[in-house]
Amino acid sequence: MPYQVPEPKIFACTQSMELGQKIAKSYGTDLGKVLFSRYSDGEFQPSFEESIRGTRIFIIGSTHPGPENLMEMLLMIDAAKRASARHITAVMPYFGWARQDRKDKPRVPIAAKLVAKMLETAGATRIITMDLHADQIQGFFEKPVDHLFASTLFLPYLEKLKLKNLTIASPDMGGSKRAYAYSKALSSDVVICYKQRAKANKISHMELIGEVKDRNVVLVDDMVDTAGTLTKAADLMMERGALSVRAITTHGLLSGNAYERIQKSKLQELIITDSIPTHAKSDKIKVLSCADLFADVMHRVHHNTSIASKFIM
């Protein structure tokens, strides 16, 4: 009797349990059972409560701060390896620590490289993620990386808005490639913000390269943290005569005073995905789910079919 490859099993880390349930439902299955035991000093231990021997498993978990989220993913992978899983795919909608992708000054770590090596050492055989902070992070891995783009979610949403005199904007020079890709897809103009930072999360000066007068502007970025850059850019563009300013950012970290800044800013709307758990505290924030995207790609990976159609950008 020919050997039949068993169907994959899907598990989720605690920080991504809600998204994991959505992905599993879209895939057409239920989340696998994992027991998380915790000691009184804070140490924790995941335990798979069903056999995974010889199967492909997907472990869903974004690794946004704090560090427990990354540690949980690593322990889940290690446990799966020791339980003889056939393939272990780390599904990381948000790949944390990615802003540290190079040495931008002496005596600092390259955390993104370190995280990549830790995931491989733990036992991950494949990585599926979305909108990395820097594309070159894929090269930090020796295992296959499927780097998805949230543009597959955002572009249909923008097209439904039917905005006239549309201009795509990047809030900084580093995001210009992303902005040009969106502008090409939407046949729109592009403007770039040039910013100088006094320190991390603190902007000292911002200038606008391009014309936004009488334009509907959409800012494009991979993440929104304190929302300082986005809100400052939106206010600047409205001062320069823009008709409206929206922002689309894949990962909604939304730390510190982000919600307050967004609410007080001249941003008409902020559209994010649910790659990171968020409890929208502003009526300006709209969340698009990435569950169907990841479920589709996971199905294609398991059945060895192409995922090229998911790479719009």
TrEMBL record:
One of its GO terms (cellular component) is ribose phosphate diphosphokinase complex. Residues 9-123 form the Ribose-phosphate pyrophosphokinase N-terminal domain. The keyword Nucleotide-binding applies. It catalyses: D-ribose 5-phosphate + ATP = 5-phospho-alpha-D-ribose 1-diphosphate + AMP + H(+). Keywords: ATP-binding, Cytoplasm, Kinase, Magnesium, Metal-binding, Nucleotide biosynthesis, Nucleotide-binding, Transferase. InterPro entries: PRib_PP_synth_CS, Pribosyltran_N, PRTase-like, PRTase_dom, Rib-P_diPkinase. The keyword Chloroplast does not apply. One of its GO terms (biological process) is 5-phosphoribose 1-diphosphate biosynthetic process. It comes from the Bacteria. Its EC number is 2.7.6.1. GO terms for molecular function: ATP binding; kinase activity; magnesium ion binding; ribose phosphate diphosphokinase activity. This is ribose-phosphate diphosphokinase. It comes from Muriicola jejuensis. The gene is prs.
